[in-house]
Amino acid sequence: MQVNPYRALMEDRDDLALSLADLYDRPAWMRDALCREPAYRDVEWFPGRGQPADEAQAICARCIVRPECLAYALTLDRDTPGIWAGTSSRSRRPLRAAVHREAMRRPA
To answer: How many structural domains is the chain composed of?
Structure first.
């Protein structure tokens, strides 16, 4: 297992260290995410309530890592904001519930 060299810095709660640790721990598929392209830096990936998310969702619809992104988003906290795999936190709620129900049906 690879050790994250930035974790020790996190004890100081330094913002830069936290950011570096977050980057280091990101799943590999995120490198291929279309939302990471410089052309989409100005897209609103974290729209507020009632703000349109159409542009972000359209980009997600073309992304090659959308399945991985959705699987990842479903593991995040229930109210994690932002557009992930073309879904909002609100639209992920029933998906997360369905995944939970399916997991409960599987034998241990």
So the answer is: 1
